[in-house]
Write a structure and sequence with these properties.
The structure is a single chain. The protein is α+β, with helices and mostly antiparallel strands and about 400 residues long. It has two domains: about 160 residues, Creatine Amidinohydrolase, Chain A, domain 1; about 240 residues, Creatine Amidinohydrolase (Alpha-Beta Complex), CATH 3.90.230.10. The protein has twelve helices and 17 strands. The strands form five sheets. The chain has a six-stranded mixed beta sheet with strand order 4-3-2-1-5-6, sandwiched between helices. A three-stranded antiparallel beta sheet has the order 7-10-11. A hairpin with a 4-residue loop joins strand 16 and strand 17. It starts with 6 loop residues before the first helix and ends in a 6-residue tail after the last helix.
């Protein structure tokens, strides 16, 4: 049945969306269960579409949300498939079009899905434009296909909802804190499991076991555990190499909880002790990240932070990267929005506002030395600056070495 719904929060989101629409109809489908015979289901066979979840927080399948905007008030109707007791013996209990669904969702009017088309036909004669999420998650919806080719004024709802999602409300931030705390516990477990000779997939197993043990619903994205030469490949996720003494390990992994994900990266020596060279590169990356964090505040932009990080690297590289500045080995952007997606929706030209969440993830990658360092943290923009959300994952070389020296390590 999913986690409890913050009915007040989602009602505010629906009202805000209706106000942005002004006059018209928003029609939002829920996700369908994936097909075990056709799809490669790696985790759960169902995950709600983000747009439907944002406006309902319901983890229910084959449903539809209808919002009729116009004037001072908006009408919201939730359409649910009828319950099928014989099927629920296989799937577990499902929400049906009844008073229980109305109570749990906070939506007063809940109807069976077979009444949707009749209501739509009446609305289309009297209402303005039709807004629907027109994206990869809905491209196979027959109703939406029919609307798009019907000649009616059909507009994409996603830009309106995506712009709303950029600033998180209190419920969203609470979910993200939970996901990030779970992720930090996983990174600690990976560090504690490290030793020369361990396989990357063993570290992955320790990490993801801690995710599950602490309540994660699923992974936010495939876990990256790259040791030695693999530490310099940004999205390496094969995780099949056996580590060697002296390797650095880059672990980029995040848990999802309540449909919101974390995105945390830590780099550590598999033997528990940084070499002087590793420590020098690591400390430069860490100092760059701290400078970017100190510059994160309302009004700044991601582009400005990225530029400042690169300027800092150029000014403080010395001879660490030879004749070239270490900026030349920083081969990706400084960060990205975070939320229900690991690379969450939103315009990067938007100046930072309180409630936005982004990652700060500088890195230096030197393939010739099999030496890669990335440090990534999740950051909440506040009224006066920013807050580290992922501070529970050890980050300084002293903290990492102290943790990895404990007798509890295998």
């Amino acid at each position: 049945m999913g986690r409890p719904v913050d009915t007040a929060a989602v009602a505010l989101r629906r009202r805000a969306l209706a106000a942005r629409i002004g006059r018209g109809v928003a029609l939002i489908p829920a996700a369908h269960e994936r097909d075990l015979e056709r799809d490669y289901v790696q985790d759960n066979d169902f995950r709600q579409t983000n747009t439907f979840f944002y406006l309902t927080e319901l983890e229910t399948q084959d449903a539809w949300l209808l919002i009729v905007a116009g004037g001072e008030a908006a009408t919201t109707v939730l359409f649910l498939p009828p319950r099928t007791p014989s099927q629920e013996r296989w799937t577990g209990l499902r929400l049906g079009p009844d008073t229980t669904a109305a109570r749990l969702s906070g939506i007063g009017r809940v109807l069976p899905t077979d009444s949707l088309d009749r209501m739509l036909a009446a609305l289309f004669r009297a209402s303005g434009p039709i807004y629907a999420p027109l994206d990869v998650t809905t491209r196979d919806e027959p109703r939406l296909k029919e609307l798009v080719f019907s000649g009616r004024d059909v507009r994409n709802l996603r830009p309106l909802v995506d712009s709303m999602r950029l600033v998180k409300d209190g419920d969203e931030i609470a979910r993200m804190r939970k996901a990030i705390d779970i992720s930090a516990a996983g990174h600690v477990a990976a560090m504690q499991a490290a030793r020369p000779g361990v396989w990357e997939y063993e570290l992955e197993a320790a990490l993801e076991a801690a995710f599950r043990r602490n309540g994660a619903d699923r992974l936010g994205y495939p876990s990256i555990v790259g040791s030695g030469p693999n530490s310099t490949t940004l999205h390496y996720d094969v995780n099949r190499r056996q580590t060697r003494d002296g390797d650095l390990v880059v672990v980029d992994a995040g848990a999802e909880w309540g449909q919101y994900t974390a995105d945390v990266t830590r780099t550590f020596p598999v033997n528990g002790k940084f070499t002087p060279r590793q420590k020098a590169i690591y400390d430069l990356v860490l100092a760059t990240q701290q400078m970017a964090f100190d510059s994160t505040r309302p009004g700044a932009t991601v582009a400005q932070l990225n530029r400042m990080a690169r300027e800092y690297l150029r000014a403080h590289s010395g001879t660490l990267c030879g004749a070239q500045s270490c900026d030349g080995y920083f081969i990706h952007g400084l960060g990205h929005w975070l939320g229900m997606d690991v690379h969450d929706v939103g315009d990067y030209a938007t100046p930072l506002k309180p409630g936005m969440v982004l990652t700060l993830e500088p890195g230096i990658y030197v393939p010739a030395e099999s030496l890669g360092v990335r440090i990534e943290d999740d950051v909440l923009v506040t009224a006066t600056g920013a807050e580290w959300l992922s501070a529970k994952a050890p980050k300084t070389t002293v903290e990492i070495e102290r943790l990895m020296s404990r007798p509890s390590r295998p």
